[in-house]
């Protein structure tokens, strides 16, 4: 008499659906239709090399074209800027400004890269009652 085991396996289709949902949750539903996360339009205002003898460091100021960019759009733009403009530095700080903001004033958002990649991206609070910076998406 053969004895049946009590284990069951999830069908492959269920596993693939779970993986697809997780990928779409991370990159957004736009990836399903467009193949890449959305990127807000931007223009580089200035770049500055602030390297020391010990480390290669740069600062980039960029103005975004949208008045309400999402954190996902800013993150995607930061990765693109790092690849195209800021790749010469190990450490990079990227300041984002909205239309109408003065680049000599407080930035709308700040992204920081280390040698391994995007470290953090933060929205800077303009309201004095709020904390100066709020960690929006730890990476």
What does this structure look like?
A six-stranded mixed sheet has the order 1-2-3-4-5-6, covered by helices on one side. The protein has three helices and six strands. Helix content is 25%, strand content 31%. By secondary structure, the protein is of the alpha+beta class. The protein folds into two domains: 10-37, no CATH class; 40-138, Diaminopimelate Epimerase, Chain A, domain 1.
| Chain-averaged pLDDT | 79
Instruction: Give the % helix.
Output: 25-40%
Q: What is the strand content?
A: 25-35%
The CATH architecture of the largest domain can be given as Roll
| CATH topology label of the largest domain | Diaminopimelate Epimerase, Chain A, domain 1
What count of domains describes the coordinates? Answer: 2
Evaluate the radius of gyration. 21 Å
- Number of discrete helical segments: 3
The global form is: flat
- Elements, N to C (H/E): HHEEHEEEE
Task: For the largest sheet, list the strands in their spatial order.
Answer: 1-2-3-4-5-6
Total strands: 6
By helix and strand content, what is the structural category?
A: alpha+beta
CATH class of the largest domain: Alpha Beta
**Gap between N and C termini:** 56 Å
Major sheet characteristics: 6 strands, mixed
Unreliable residue stretches: 127-139
């Amino acid at each position: 008499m053969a004895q049946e085991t009590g284990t069951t396996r999830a069908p492959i289709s269920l596993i693939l659906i779970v993986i697809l949902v997780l990928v779409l949750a991370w990159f957004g539903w736009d990836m399903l239709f467009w193949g890449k996360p959305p990127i807000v339009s931007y223009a580089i205002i200035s770049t500055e090399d602030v390297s020391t003898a010990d480390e290669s460091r740069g600062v980039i100021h960029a103005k975004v074209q949208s008045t309400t960019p999402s954190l996902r759009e800013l993150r995607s733009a930061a990765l693109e800027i790092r690849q195209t403009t800021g790749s010469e530095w190990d450490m990079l700080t990227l300041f984002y400004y909205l239309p109408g903001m003065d680049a000599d004033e407080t930035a709308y958002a700040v992204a920081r890269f280390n040698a391994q990649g995007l470290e953090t991206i933060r929205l800077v609070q303009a309201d004095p009652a709020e904390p100066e910076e709020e960690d929006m998406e730890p990476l």
